[in-house]
Amino acid sequence: HEPASPEDGHDGRWVVGGDVRVSPLLDHGDGGDWGPPRSIHKQNEGKVPKITANGAIVHSSGSWILPFWRQKPRHIFIHDPETDQTTRRCNGPKREKRRTSAAVLISKDRGKTWRSSPKPIESRTAGWLIENTLVELSDASLLMLFRTKAGAVFSCKSVDGGETWSTAAVIEELVNTDSKIHLIKLRDGRLLLAFNDHPRPFVHDRAKNELVASRERTRMVVSISSDEGSTWKRLFRIDEPSESAPSGGILSGFFGNPEASKRVVDDDFPNQDSENPFQLRDMDETSDLAVQYHYPWLLELPQDQSGPECSVLIAYTKSRLNVVSQKTNGHEIWVSCIPL
Questions:
Q1: Residue closest to 325 by CA, chosen among 201, 215, 208, 199
Q2: 267-287 residue pLDDT tens
Q3: What are φ and ψ of residue 242, in 5° steps?
Q4: From CA 79, how far away is CA 72, in angstroms rounded?
Q5: Using one digit for the tens of pLDDT, what is the confidence trace for 119-150?
Q6: Does the bond joining 16 to the residue before it have cis omega, within 30 degrees of 0?
């Protein structure tokens, strides 16, 4: 994404969203050599910033299909070059009155040009449909799943290569706390989904004597479907590998600042109850910290690199959450090996 564009009348930076941009991979060597980014879908098309969170797929028809969504920004930072001052405007421009909606970008010429599916996907029941992720099924139809505010994952399908989509509907067995999900299709045709498998937890605000929704995210699980998404079976819980992993457990590694790693360890979260992660907490206890395991990304290893102990990688973020302020710090990126 990029800042609000001048042609839209605002030389500033949106929170969240902007243009959707792509960069070509010029060299497949170590680390890769990437070309300059270019916009493929501008925020001023429809006057709502655009966002992506999961990758594109290559359809059997040859089309490239990228899921994205449109979201009204919470605010925009505007810089005045004359005064060299930056101000924050809440809720974005007044004309941004559209609801959050989802769609896909389609390219039929290997990424040279892109266009959006014509009709936005919306749902008042879901609260919003964001961070969409999709796969192609055996009959060439598309299955797309969404993060929502409704306490569960929603889904919809397309039978015409992403041009039109069915009405989004809830998948009741996939409980979710309004956090990112990621779906992939394995070489054998089964579907693999990573998500936070719990409803939105609450904390007790003593000052107001009321329950307040918390941003805690635990129970990072991987589930599998052998019938193209009709039913799901839970395989592993990533944040507690010993619970469901076979002998040898799930191999994990940490990528980030070693000093941050020393600060953010399980001992920092004495009140986190793994058996009951939805327990009430008092918001005036400033030492009461929680863990966030979220923003998963799945990758099936090439056949010549996979084995019985590691056939899929899952990357995710581990953060420390202050229950009082609901702010996070000490972000870490973890990668775990999943045996299938």
A1: 215
A2: 333 333 334 333 333 333 333
A3: -70, -20
A4: 20
A5: 999 999 999 999 999 999 999 999 999 999 99
A6: yes
In this structure, what are the phi and psi dihedrals at residue 263, rounded to the nearest 5 degrees? Answer: -80, -35
- Going by the DSSP 8-state scheme, the letter that residue 119 receives in this structure is S
Which of 59, 138, 37 is CA-nearest to residue 106? 59
SS3 content of the chain, % helix, strand, coil (to 5): 5, 45, 50
Length of the chain: 340
CA distance 207 to 77: 32
* Residue given tokens 């005045």 in the structure block: 80
Query: For 298-313, how does the pLDDT look when each residue is reduced to its tens digit (9 = 90+)?
Result: 999 999 988 877 899 9
Nearest C-alpha neighbor of 248 from the set 184, 173, 323, 310: 310
And the tokens for 303? 């056949």
| pTM, 2 dp | 0.80
Nearest by Cα to 18 from 46, 45, 40, 51: 51
Query: What token pair was written down for 205?
Result: 């605000």
Rounded to whole angstroms, how far apart are CA atoms 202 and 212? 5
Distances (CA, A) of 116 to 108, 165, 191, 214, 323: 12, 13, 26, 35, 40
**Long-range contacts of the stretch 206-212 (C-beta < 8 A, 24+):** 206/282, 206/283, 206/284, 207/283, 207/284, 211/280, 212/283
State the greatest distance between any 2 C-alpha atoms of the chain, in Å, as a whole number: 64
Name the 3-class secondary structure at 244. helix
